[in-house]
Amino acid sequence: MAYQSVSPLEFTQPLVEAPIASVAPQAVIIVTSPDLPVSSLRDLIALAKQRSLNYGTPGAGSVSQLVVEYIFTTQSGARMTHIPYSGAAPTLTAAMAGQVEVASTTMPPAVTLVKADKLKGIAITTPVRSVVLPQVMETFGTWAATKGGLKQSYTMVTDYGPGHDAEAAFQTGFKGAGGTIVGSVRFPVANPDFSAFVQRAKDLAPQSIYIFIPGGAQPAALGKAFAERGIDLDKTKVLGSGETTAEAALKSMGDTALGIITAWHYDYMSKNPLNVKFVKEYQSVAGGRNPDFFSIGGYDGMHAIYEALKKTKGKTDAEALVAAAKGMKWESPRGPMMIDPETRDVVQNVYIRRVQKVGGELVNVPFATIPMVKDPAGERRKTGQK
Fold it and tell me: How many CB atoms lie within 10 A of CB 85?
């Protein structure tokens, strides 16, 4: 997808492994079907060198694809055939059905299936969880208690790392802006029936309910529980992260998703001219599929690498690349972007969206923007606060 005419750079030395900046922080998990005869990443690499394997990801050019290509092709010399799908849910479904032998995707939707022994977890890419989820969710909590006009909230999250992060971040922002958390609950990772949890929240009659769950089948199950328990979204606002109402999730939730409000850092519905062009060109090479946060992470990551190499005139030593990335600014399909010169974390817009029907389809419609958000936790660390 070319947005400008550029001439190739000549690399003056081999590429080195150096973290330049945190542009698209995302923990990726590599899973396999349970019957594949491997139990570690080392085993999987060895098998890929012995025979041809295929792997699925949520989309071409996604962070999940880049991770596999880096580990297997660049670092190990083992090639696998890539099969892109339209999101994490169909990727994992294909892995369970044996249509692909390996899958690479984000943690939340895959953890449920690994816990249930439906897939085998092989490796994750980082021992540190993403800073983007707390960045967006704390900002969302602040917005909800101020411009969102909400003074009470009840939080419901999946009982695992990302759920804990989302809960803590939202509650910090909400309470810090004057809101009150009237209750909270954490439900098991593998939990298809949310009825009792939703009823517990309904009994407290909060102004809002904040939810964080993995993708896959769970958004539909939760939407069904809200409908069955009579949660009126006009009276009780339902809030969540962008993954809760991802395109695939909306298709499974149906009209029960109408009115859900979420916060996220990218939405393909954005009317930003660069995004309109990005969506059109992405669809042309992805079989009509819309880009998602995986896609934009890959795009911005590659943009930052390219621009850093332009500044260094092809030099790839760690010190030069890090210096080139500090404070870098650019226009992305997701909006204006910057790399914080002190923390090297991404600074980006956070978009508040509401699920609506447009042209007969359920979509997230952005209606508010919090511009150029820095990671709140990183800002507190700068001043010695917790």
Answer: 24
> Tell me, what's the pLDDT at 163?
86
Mean pLDDT of 181-200: 87
Beta strands 335-339; 346-358: pairing state: antiparallel
DSSP state of 72: I
Q: Where are the domains of the chain?
A: 28-124, 132-268+349-382
| Nearest Cα to Cα of residue 89 among 67, 112, 72 | 112
And the tokens for 28?
């990726």
Which class does domain 132-268+349-382 fall in?
alpha beta
pLDDT value, residue 345: 86
* Contact yes or no for 43/130 (Cβ under 8 A): no
Residues 6+ positions from 92 with CB-CB distance below 8 Å? 31, 103, 105, 109, 110, 113, 119, 216
How far is residue 47 from each of residues 61, 78, 125, measured CA to CA in Å?
24, 9, 20
Structure token digits, residue 347: 């600074």
| CATH dotted code for 28-124 | 3.40.190.10
- Compute the distance between CA of residue 337 and CA of residue 348 in angstroms, rounded to an integer: 5
| Pairing status of strand 346-358 against strand 80-84 | unpaired
Bigger pLDDT: 40 or 116? 40
Confidence (pTM): 0.76
Q: Please answer whether residues 137 and 241 qualify as being in contact, where contact means their C-beta atoms are separated by less than 8 angstroms.
A: yes
**CA 386, CA 380: separation in Å to the nearest integer?**
6
